[in-house]
Amino acid sequence: MKVIELIKDKTSQPFSFEVLPPLKGSGTEGLFQTIDRLREFAPRYINITAHRSEYVYKELENGLMQRQRIRRRPGSIAIAAAIQQRYGIPVVPHLVCSGNTREDLEYTLIDLQFLDISDLLVLRGDKAKDEASFQPTGDGPAHATELIQQINRFNQGEFFDGTPIKNPGKPFSFGVACYPEKHEEAANLESDMAVLKQKADLGAEYAVTQLFYDNEKYFSFVRKAREMGITIPIVPGIKPLAKFSQLTIVPKSFHCDLPEALYREAAKCKTDEEMKQVGIEWATAQCKELLAKGAPNLHFYTVSAVDSICQIAKNIY
What range defines the domain where residue 80 resides? Predict the structure, then answer.
Protein backbone atom coordinates (compact mmCIF):
# COMPACT_ATOMS: atom_id res chain seq x y z
CA MET A 1 0.00 0.00 0.00
CA LYS A 2 1.36 3.42 -0.98
CA VAL A 3 1.96 6.05 1.70
CA ILE A 4 -0.79 8.27 0.30
CA GLU A 5 -3.20 5.37 0.72
CA LEU A 6 -2.04 4.89 4.31
CA ILE A 7 -2.53 8.59 5.02
CA LYS A 8 -6.08 8.41 3.69
CA ASP A 9 -6.86 5.11 5.46
CA LYS A 10 -9.27 5.96 8.29
CA THR A 11 -8.75 2.56 9.94
CA SER A 12 -5.02 3.02 10.62
CA GLN A 13 -3.44 5.05 13.40
CA PRO A 14 -2.63 8.64 12.31
CA PHE A 15 1.00 8.33 13.39
CA SER A 16 4.35 8.37 11.59
CA PHE A 17 7.83 9.54 12.42
CA GLU A 18 11.22 10.46 11.02
CA VAL A 19 14.62 9.03 11.99
CA LEU A 20 18.21 9.85 11.11
CA PRO A 21 20.68 7.26 9.85
CA PRO A 22 23.31 6.55 12.52
CA LEU A 23 26.49 8.57 12.60
CA LYS A 24 29.33 6.95 10.66
CA GLY A 25 30.74 4.08 12.72
CA SER A 26 27.94 4.09 15.31
CA GLY A 27 26.01 1.02 14.20
CA THR A 28 22.25 0.57 14.14
CA GLU A 29 21.54 -0.33 17.78
CA GLY A 30 20.39 3.13 18.82
CA LEU A 31 18.22 3.53 15.74
CA PHE A 32 16.51 0.18 16.27
CA GLN A 33 15.93 1.02 19.94
CA THR A 34 14.07 4.15 18.84
CA ILE A 35 11.90 2.16 16.43
CA ASP A 36 11.30 -0.57 19.03
CA ARG A 37 9.92 2.05 21.42
CA LEU A 38 7.68 3.75 18.88
CA ARG A 39 6.34 0.81 16.90
CA GLU A 40 3.80 0.00 19.65
CA PHE A 41 1.84 2.98 18.33
CA ALA A 42 1.45 1.28 14.92
CA PRO A 43 3.20 3.83 12.70
CA ARG A 44 1.84 4.12 9.20
CA TYR A 45 5.36 4.64 7.84
CA ILE A 46 8.86 5.74 8.84
CA ASN A 47 10.82 8.49 7.11
CA ILE A 48 14.61 8.23 6.82
CA THR A 49 16.57 11.44 6.30
CA ALA A 50 19.39 11.80 3.78
CA HIS A 51 22.53 13.84 4.42
CA ARG A 52 24.98 15.29 1.94
CA SER A 53 28.74 14.98 2.12
CA GLU A 54 30.61 17.96 3.53
CA TYR A 55 34.14 19.22 3.12
CA VAL A 56 36.43 19.58 6.12
CA TYR A 57 40.02 20.77 6.38
CA LYS A 58 42.59 18.62 8.17
CA GLU A 59 46.10 19.72 9.02
CA LEU A 60 48.89 17.57 7.60
CA GLU A 61 52.22 16.86 9.30
CA ASN A 62 53.91 19.50 7.14
CA GLY A 63 51.50 22.14 8.41
CA LEU A 64 49.49 22.40 5.19
CA MET A 65 45.71 22.01 5.18
CA GLN A 66 44.07 19.29 3.11
CA ARG A 67 40.43 19.50 1.98
CA GLN A 68 38.65 16.19 2.56
CA ARG A 69 35.12 15.12 1.77
CA ILE A 70 33.29 13.29 4.53
CA ARG A 71 29.75 12.02 5.05
CA ARG A 72 28.74 11.89 8.69
CA ARG A 73 25.49 9.97 8.17
CA PRO A 74 25.83 7.55 5.25
CA GLY A 75 23.51 4.72 4.38
CA SER A 76 20.00 6.21 4.10
CA ILE A 77 18.97 3.65 1.47
CA ALA A 78 20.52 0.72 3.31
CA ILE A 79 18.86 1.84 6.56
CA ALA A 80 15.50 2.10 4.80
CA ALA A 81 15.87 -1.45 3.49
CA ALA A 82 16.97 -2.73 6.92
CA ILE A 83 13.94 -1.17 8.62
CA GLN A 84 11.56 -2.55 6.01
CA GLN A 85 13.04 -6.04 6.31
CA ARG A 86 13.29 -6.06 10.12
CA TYR A 87 9.92 -4.50 10.99
CA GLY A 88 7.72 -4.78 7.90
CA ILE A 89 6.82 -1.10 8.29
CA PRO A 90 6.63 0.99 5.10
CA VAL A 91 9.65 3.25 4.71
CA VAL A 92 10.03 6.63 3.02
CA PRO A 93 13.65 7.58 2.35
CA HIS A 94 14.38 11.21 1.59
CA LEU A 95 15.69 11.93 -1.89
CA VAL A 96 17.53 15.26 -1.97
CA CYS A 97 19.08 17.51 -4.59
CA SER A 98 21.75 18.56 -2.11
CA GLY A 99 25.15 17.06 -2.87
CA ASN A 100 23.93 14.91 -5.78
CA THR A 101 24.38 14.97 -9.52
CA ARG A 102 21.59 13.75 -11.77
CA GLU A 103 23.49 10.51 -12.28
CA ASP A 104 23.83 10.04 -8.50
CA LEU A 105 20.09 10.45 -8.13
CA GLU A 106 19.37 8.09 -10.99
CA TYR A 107 21.47 5.33 -9.45
CA THR A 108 19.70 5.89 -6.13
CA LEU A 109 16.37 5.36 -7.88
CA ILE A 110 17.67 2.17 -9.45
CA ASP A 111 18.91 0.88 -6.08
CA LEU A 112 15.54 1.67 -4.51
CA GLN A 113 13.73 -0.25 -7.22
CA PHE A 114 15.96 -3.26 -6.60
CA LEU A 115 14.96 -3.06 -2.92
CA ASP A 116 11.24 -2.71 -3.74
CA ILE A 117 11.07 0.72 -2.09
CA SER A 118 8.81 3.00 -4.11
CA ASP A 119 7.78 5.81 -1.74
CA LEU A 120 9.95 8.92 -1.43
CA LEU A 121 10.02 12.31 0.22
CA VAL A 122 11.50 14.67 -2.37
CA LEU A 123 13.45 17.67 -1.05
CA ARG A 124 15.98 20.20 -2.21
CA GLY A 125 17.96 19.67 1.01
CA ASP A 126 20.28 21.99 2.89
CA LYS A 127 23.08 24.04 1.46
CA ALA A 128 26.64 23.05 2.30
CA LYS A 129 28.01 24.62 5.46
CA ASP A 130 30.65 26.54 3.51
CA GLU A 131 28.13 27.97 1.01
CA ALA A 132 26.44 31.34 1.34
CA SER A 133 23.49 30.00 -0.66
CA PHE A 134 22.46 26.64 -2.07
CA GLN A 135 24.56 25.48 -5.01
CA PRO A 136 23.74 22.34 -7.02
CA THR A 137 26.44 19.71 -7.37
CA GLY A 138 27.59 19.48 -10.98
CA ASP A 139 24.52 19.10 -13.17
CA GLY A 140 22.38 18.23 -10.15
CA PRO A 141 18.95 19.80 -9.72
CA ALA A 142 18.80 23.17 -7.97
CA HIS A 143 15.19 22.81 -6.82
CA ALA A 144 12.88 20.03 -5.66
CA THR A 145 10.69 20.69 -8.70
CA GLU A 146 13.60 19.79 -10.99
CA LEU A 147 14.19 16.57 -9.06
CA ILE A 148 10.48 15.74 -9.33
CA GLN A 149 10.72 16.17 -13.10
CA GLN A 150 13.64 13.74 -13.19
CA ILE A 151 11.65 11.19 -11.16
CA ASN A 152 8.66 11.63 -13.48
CA ARG A 153 10.82 10.94 -16.53
CA PHE A 154 12.25 7.86 -14.79
CA ASN A 155 8.71 6.68 -14.03
CA GLN A 156 7.87 7.16 -17.70
CA GLY A 157 10.78 4.94 -18.74
CA GLU A 158 13.50 7.47 -19.54
CA PHE A 159 16.94 7.97 -18.02
CA PHE A 160 18.10 11.52 -17.35
CA ASP A 161 20.17 11.55 -20.55
CA GLY A 162 17.12 10.64 -22.63
CA THR A 163 17.89 6.98 -23.26
CA PRO A 164 14.99 4.54 -22.74
CA ILE A 165 14.75 2.19 -19.77
CA LYS A 166 14.19 -1.37 -21.01
CA ASN A 167 12.31 -2.45 -17.89
CA PRO A 168 10.95 0.66 -16.14
CA GLY A 169 9.76 -1.24 -13.08
CA LYS A 170 7.37 -0.04 -10.39
CA PRO A 171 6.87 3.74 -10.53
CA PHE A 172 7.78 5.92 -7.58
CA SER A 173 5.24 7.83 -5.50
CA PHE A 174 6.34 10.82 -3.51
CA GLY A 175 5.52 13.52 -1.02
CA VAL A 176 7.18 16.89 -0.52
CA ALA A 177 7.90 19.42 2.21
CA CYS A 178 5.99 22.62 2.95
CA TYR A 179 6.37 25.51 5.38
CA PRO A 180 3.42 27.03 7.28
CA GLU A 181 5.68 29.96 8.25
CA LYS A 182 7.38 30.01 4.81
CA HIS A 183 10.75 28.67 3.75
CA GLU A 184 13.58 30.83 5.04
CA GLU A 185 14.67 31.71 1.50
CA ALA A 186 11.21 32.56 0.16
CA ALA A 187 10.30 36.21 -0.39
CA ASN A 188 6.91 35.68 1.25
CA LEU A 189 4.41 32.97 2.13
CA GLU A 190 2.40 33.41 -1.08
CA SER A 191 5.39 32.82 -3.35
CA ASP A 192 6.42 29.82 -1.24
CA MET A 193 2.95 28.33 -1.53
CA ALA A 194 3.06 28.85 -5.30
CA VAL A 195 6.05 26.47 -5.30
CA LEU A 196 4.01 23.94 -3.32
CA LYS A 197 1.26 24.24 -5.94
CA GLN A 198 3.84 23.53 -8.64
CA LYS A 199 5.06 20.44 -6.76
CA ALA A 200 1.49 19.17 -6.43
CA ASP A 201 0.79 19.81 -10.11
CA LEU A 202 3.92 17.80 -10.96
CA GLY A 203 2.63 14.79 -9.04
CA ALA A 204 3.37 15.17 -5.33
CA GLU A 205 0.70 13.16 -3.52
CA TYR A 206 0.97 14.80 -0.10
CA ALA A 207 3.03 17.38 1.77
CA VAL A 208 4.60 17.28 5.24
CA THR A 209 5.11 20.53 7.09
CA GLN A 210 8.16 21.88 8.81
CA LEU A 211 7.70 21.76 12.58
CA PHE A 212 5.49 24.47 14.12
CA TYR A 213 4.06 25.29 17.54
CA ASP A 214 1.11 27.51 16.65
CA ASN A 215 -1.75 25.43 15.25
CA GLU A 216 -3.48 28.45 13.78
CA LYS A 217 -0.58 28.89 11.39
CA TYR A 218 -1.13 25.34 10.16
CA PHE A 219 -4.89 25.79 9.79
CA SER A 220 -4.38 29.11 7.98
CA PHE A 221 -1.83 27.50 5.69
CA VAL A 222 -4.22 24.69 4.78
CA ARG A 223 -7.04 27.16 4.10
CA LYS A 224 -4.80 29.21 1.79
CA ALA A 225 -3.61 26.05 0.05
CA ARG A 226 -7.18 24.97 -0.70
CA GLU A 227 -8.02 28.45 -2.01
CA MET A 228 -5.03 28.12 -4.38
CA GLY A 229 -6.28 24.77 -5.66
CA ILE A 230 -3.79 22.64 -3.72
CA THR A 231 -5.84 19.56 -2.86
CA ILE A 232 -3.22 17.09 -1.59
CA PRO A 233 -3.20 16.12 2.11
CA ILE A 234 -1.03 18.40 4.25
CA VAL A 235 0.46 16.46 7.16
CA PRO A 236 1.52 18.47 10.24
CA GLY A 237 5.08 17.91 11.45
CA ILE A 238 5.48 17.89 15.24
CA LYS A 239 8.60 18.23 17.38
CA PRO A 240 8.09 18.76 21.13
CA LEU A 241 10.48 21.02 23.01
CA ALA A 242 12.62 18.74 25.16
CA LYS A 243 15.58 20.82 26.38
CA PHE A 244 15.90 24.32 27.79
CA SER A 245 18.47 25.26 25.14
CA GLN A 246 15.83 24.67 22.44
CA LEU A 247 13.97 27.76 23.57
CA THR A 248 16.36 29.82 21.43
CA ILE A 249 17.86 27.18 19.13
CA VAL A 250 14.62 25.86 17.61
CA PRO A 251 13.21 29.22 16.40
CA LYS A 252 16.59 30.11 14.91
CA SER A 253 17.32 26.73 13.29
CA PHE A 254 13.84 26.00 11.96
CA HIS A 255 12.62 29.56 11.38
CA CYS A 256 9.44 29.16 13.37
CA ASP A 257 7.78 31.31 16.02
CA LEU A 258 6.98 30.19 19.55
CA PRO A 259 3.52 31.31 20.67
CA GLU A 260 3.60 33.71 23.60
CA ALA A 261 1.74 31.25 25.85
CA LEU A 262 4.32 28.53 25.17
CA TYR A 263 7.21 30.93 25.64
CA ARG A 264 5.87 32.10 29.00
CA GLU A 265 5.58 28.54 30.31
CA ALA A 266 8.95 27.51 28.92
CA ALA A 267 10.68 30.58 30.37
CA LYS A 268 9.63 29.49 33.86
CA CYS A 269 11.58 26.24 33.51
CA LYS A 270 14.79 25.85 35.47
CA THR A 271 15.80 22.40 34.21
CA ASP A 272 15.60 20.32 31.06
CA GLU A 273 13.16 17.98 32.80
CA GLU A 274 10.77 20.85 33.45
CA MET A 275 11.11 21.96 29.84
CA LYS A 276 10.45 18.42 28.68
CA GLN A 277 7.16 18.31 30.57
CA VAL A 278 6.08 21.66 29.16
CA GLY A 279 6.92 20.36 25.68
CA ILE A 280 4.88 17.19 26.22
CA GLU A 281 1.85 19.09 27.48
CA TRP A 282 1.97 21.64 24.65
CA ALA A 283 2.45 19.04 21.90
CA THR A 284 -0.29 16.83 23.35
CA ALA A 285 -2.74 19.72 23.18
CA GLN A 286 -1.49 20.56 19.68
CA CYS A 287 -2.03 17.02 18.45
CA LYS A 288 -5.49 16.62 19.95
CA GLU A 289 -6.65 19.84 18.29
CA LEU A 290 -5.05 18.94 14.96
CA LEU A 291 -6.78 15.57 14.86
CA ALA A 292 -10.09 17.01 16.03
CA LYS A 293 -10.01 19.53 13.19
CA GLY A 294 -9.19 17.03 10.48
CA ALA A 295 -5.41 16.73 10.14
CA PRO A 296 -4.80 13.61 8.02
CA ASN A 297 -1.85 12.32 10.05
CA LEU A 298 0.64 13.36 12.73
CA HIS A 299 4.29 13.15 11.72
CA PHE A 300 6.88 13.36 14.52
CA TYR A 301 10.50 14.47 14.31
CA THR A 302 12.31 12.21 16.78
CA VAL A 303 15.73 13.83 17.27
CA SER A 304 16.26 14.43 21.01
CA ALA A 305 12.57 13.78 21.59
CA VAL A 306 11.87 10.03 21.63
CA ASP A 307 10.86 9.94 25.31
CA SER A 308 8.53 12.88 24.80
CA ILE A 309 6.95 11.41 21.67
CA CYS A 310 6.26 8.13 23.47
CA GLN A 311 4.40 10.02 26.21
CA ILE A 312 2.52 12.21 23.72
CA ALA A 313 1.45 9.13 21.76
CA LYS A 314 0.17 7.51 24.97
CA ASN A 315 -1.78 10.68 25.72
CA ILE A 316 -3.53 10.89 22.37
CA TYR A 317 -3.93 7.33 21.01
Answer: 3-51+72-178
Beta strands in the chain (DSSP E): 16-19, 46-48, 54-59, 65-70, 91-96, 119-123, 173-178, 207-211, 234-238, 299-301
23: CATH: 3.20.20.220
In the chain, the number of structural domains is 1
Residue 58: band (very low, low, confident or very high) from pLDDT cuts 50, 70, 90: low
pTM of the predicted model over 0.85: yes
Residue 199 lies in a domain: no
**Rg of the Cα atoms in the chain:** 20
CA distance 123 to 42: 26
What whole-number distance in Å separates Cα of residue 269 and Cα of residue 256? 20
77: in domain: yes
Element (H, E) at 150: helix 144-155
- In a domain, residue 246? The reply is no
Average pLDDT over residues 214-236: 98
Which pLDDT belongs to residue 57? Answer: 58
- Number of Cβ within 10 Å of residue 123's Cβ equals 20
HSE of 106, CA atoms in CB hemisphere, 13 A? 17
CA angle, 202 then 204 then 207, to 5°: 140
pLDDT tens column, 182-211: 999 999 999 999 999 999 999 999 999 999
**Cα distance between residue 276 and residue 285, in whole Å:** 14
Residue 6 has pLDDT above 70, yes or no: yes
Question: Cα 259 from chain centroid?
Answer: 23
**Would you say residue 112 lies in a domain?**
yes
Q: How confident is the model at residue 134 (pLDDT cuts 50, 70, 90)?
A: confident
